[in-house]
Structures are given as C-alpha cells and as structure tokens.
Design goal:
460 residues; alpha/beta; Arginase, Chain A; 8-stranded mixed sheet; 22% strand
Length: 460
C-alpha cells in the first residue's frame, strides 16, 4: 500500500521545508516581469534575517522532474522535450522533492519558491501562455496520487490571476477540488474564472471560482477564506490541501489592482494550513515579494510574523466600499449554493448530455502568440470519471503548428473505459488524420505518443 500521512502525523514533523530555485538561466526576455530577481530579493532577505538558521526551517535541494512526470499531466505537442527547458523540469521537480519529504514525515509542510510558474499551463501544451509552459502544481498532484496513493486533493489558488490551466487539467476530475480566488476576469488576464465555471458534467461543483472586485483588501479575501473556502475544505475531506501561492494580489503589484498586504498573506496561510505551497505569480520584486514570502514562511513554520511589515504600509490605508462588501458576500453566497447542490447538478447534467459530453474551445497563448482550437469529448461513465479525448490544432500567425489527437484514461478508470480508450488510440493511429496520436494511460502509468508521419512511437 502506498504511504499516506495524516494531518496529525504531519504535525509531529517539526520543520517547514523550503526550496529556492531562481532559474538564473531562464527568462522570457531580460526585462520581463517574470525574471530571476523575483526570488533573489526574497532569498537575500531570508538569509539576512537569519530565518534559515532557525530549527523550524529546513532547506531542501531541488531535482529534475522526469519527462514522464510531465507526460502524466500534459499532452505536449509535438513532445515534452520541445516544450520544456531544464529550468522547467527543476521547478516541477522541486515540488516532488517536498512531496516525498512530506509523505515520509520528514517535514510538516513545505514551500517551493521556484520559477518558472505554472498555473496557466493547460492539459494540452503548444507553447508558453501566461508565463507558463508546464503546470508545477498539477505535476505534483499527479505524482502524489501515483507514488503515494492519495486520491482526494484540494488546490486553493491564491494568485491574482485565475488559475485557468489548473482548472482545465482537473475540470473533469471529481476527486480534485479546485478553488481559485482572483481579480475579476472582466478586468484582468486571462479573462476567465467566473462563478459559472463549475467543472465538467461528472465533476460539477468541484471547481469553485471567486472573482473579486479590483481593490479587494485583506478583509475581503479573509472573508472568502473563512466563509467559503474553509467550510468547503472541511466537508470535502481532502487527503492534502495544497496552495498555488501567487503573490500578485499585493497592493504594489504592477500587473494587477488588488490591495492585499504581507500580513494578510501570512494570516491567510495560517488559516489555510496548506501541506505544500508552490509559488506562482507576484511581480513587485522589491516592495512585496521579500515581505510576503517572509510572512508565509513564518506562518507555515508556526513563528510570529507580526513584525513582517512593508516599509510603506499604513494601517487602514485601504478600505473596501459597502458595494464591494455586498458584491463579495453575494459571490460567496452563490458559490455556497453551488457547493451544496453539486450532486444534483451532476445528475441533471448526466441526464441532459447522455453518454458523451462534447465541447469546443479556443485558447490563446499570449506569450507565444499561438491560437489553439480544441474539440473535447468526455465519456459520462456510470462507473468512473470517464475517459476523455482532445483533438487539438494550433497556429502561430499564418503558420500552422502540429496537430494531435489526445486520449486520457483517468487513474481510477473502469475496465470498459480502459478498453474503449485503447481501442480509440489504435483506430486513430491508423487514420493518419493528425500529426500525433497521444495516450495517457494513468492506471498503468504509461504514456505514448505516436508520430503518424514517421510511424514511430515514443513512450514515457
């Protein structure tokens, strides 16, 4: 039986594990907001303050994730190697190091301070979108399920931008609860993350999006946490709670319009008590990140964080209007109703769609200027979450990129779904309609990519 460790067991491990990986050799451009300085100021301040000398803190060394770790989550077109650098594999691998340490009882919790970030990277990958190529959080989740036998996992995404990539990856998975609170998508990239986005037909209510008005302060985000997130987490009963720890809700962040403080972030972490936090966004390199990270680390380690205050912070400077309070309360109320109605919503959807659910999607890769078109099909199985397929085509400008037909078998698939998915894989290998035919066989932990032009198959 794979190892499992309870919340009570974790509390016996004294240390908070940290990994720093600034990715010195990776940048989108020299002056891009997503650059190595995001972590260098934090690292300097943590060492200057002597945080790493405390008995409650333990530094761990990163390692490379394997291509198989990536293929367990993503359909990279044309292949994994074409979409990742060594920096991406180290960032993802760092989360796996902390996962192993946590499950072995060596740490009570962990924080992966790594870049590049990942939560905008979706299941299919043609390039970089939202500064993300591969999804570090999702890679960690599937690793925990495969290696350590966990089943029910909750992800709370606290980045100011909607975690659309993580949402896409677990959209049809009823065993993964995804909660994202973020600045309203009508005012900020990626323009999604609305209350109506609730999950696929078999997993309705397992995705909860909390769009917040620009200018939301500590008060508003803590209201969401205490009145929605924590009660839902308690009822869901996850084996682990994880945090996509974006820090761009801070009042100085140049890419967003929120009013969260370092104290607010620390308090959030103290209440949420994630087993592992993974850094996502946050681009106020000097004015926010060193203070926010200090607060989060000390909260995770059970230390006093009351002294962690930004130099320009003025208590009471930011206030929410009555209209903002009412809007946040109304959003929370709608999401409470969705959560309470989730089983009924699934039953209604299954009756409406029948045996298969199909949908078309268009996805824009803002970093690499790629337009992708997808046709997704999901089998609404009575015995399991159902296997699903994605037919994907993409183009950059007038240049057509390679196409793929992707088949995914969920880790707890029934016999019928496994057999039908393998049959569909073989049929599309012969059809030669797409450049690649890919298979994720999660129960067997085998991942295949068939090149229809060369008639060769790669296995991960």
């Amino acid at each position: 039986m794979a190892s499992r460790i309870s919340q009570a067991d974790r509390s016996n491990a004294r240390k908070t594990g940290l990994i720093f990986f600034p990715a010195f050799d990776w940048a989108i451009s020299p002056n891009h907001p997503e650059r190595e300085e995001r972590l260098l100021y934090t690292r300097d301040q943590i060492f200057e303050e002597g945080l790493m000398d405390l008995p409650e803190i333990e530094e761990h060394k990163p390692r490379l994730a394997s291509e198989k770790d990536v293929a367990r989550v993503h359909f990279c077109v044309p292949n994994v190697k074409s979409q990742v650098t060594e920096a991406h594999l180290i960032a993802a691998g760092s989360t796996l190091v902390l996962s192993d340490a946590l499950m072995a009882g060596k740490i009570r919790n962990g924080f992966a301070l790594v870049r590049p970030p990942g939560h905008h990277s979706m299941r299919v990958v043609h390039g970089n979108r939202g500064f993300c190529n591969i999804n570090n959080m999702a890679i960690m989740v599937e690793y925990l399920r495969r290696k350590h036998g966990l089943r029910r996992i909750a992800i709370v995404d606290t980045d100011v931008h909607h975690g659309d990539g993580t949402q896409d990856i677990f959209w049809h998975d009823p065993d993964v609860l995804f909660i994202s609170f973020h600045q309203d998508g009508r005012t900020l990239y990626p323009g999604s993350g609305f209350v109506e986005e609730m999950g696929g037909p078999n997993a309705l209510g397992r995705t909860l999006n909390v769009p917040l008005p620009p200018g939301t302060t500590d008060e508003g985000i803590h209201y969401v946490l205490e009145n929605l997130v924590m009660p839902v987490l308690d009822e869901f009963g996850a084996d682990l709670v994880l945090n996509s720890a974006g820090q761009d809700n801070h009042y100085t962040d140049p890419l967003a319009n929120m009013r969260f403080s370092a104290q607010g972030y620390a308090r959030l972490n103290e209440i949420l008590k994630p087993a592992i936090a993974v850094l996502e966004g946050g681009y106020a390199i000097e004015s926010a990140l060193p203070y926010v990270n200090m607060g989060i680390i000390q909260a995770m380690a059970g230390l006093d964080y009351s002294h962690v205050i930004e130099p320009d912070y003025v208590k009471g400077r930011f206030q929410q209007t009555r209209e903002m309070n009412l809007a946040i309360e109304a959003t929370v109320g709608r999401l409470q109703d969705i959560w309470e109605s989730r089983e009924n919503l699934v039953a209604i959807a299954r009756e409406e769609y029948g045996q298969f659910y199909r949908t078309r999607k268009r996805i824009f890769y803002d970093t690499d200027m790629i337009n992708e078109s997808q046709m997704e099909t999901v089998r609404l199985c009575d015995e399991c979450p159902g296997y699903n397929t994605v037919a994907t085509e993409a183009a950059r400008g007038y240049g057509k990129l390679e196409s793929a037909y992707c088949i995914s078998i969920p880790i707890h698939a029934c016999k019928s779904c496994k057999e039908d998915a393998h049959e569909e894989f073989e049929e599309h290998r012969l059809e030669l309609k797409y450049d690649y035919v890919n298979l994720q066989d999660k129960p067997a932990d085998v991942y295949k990519s068939y090149n229809t032009r060369t008639r060769t198959e790669k296995r991960y």
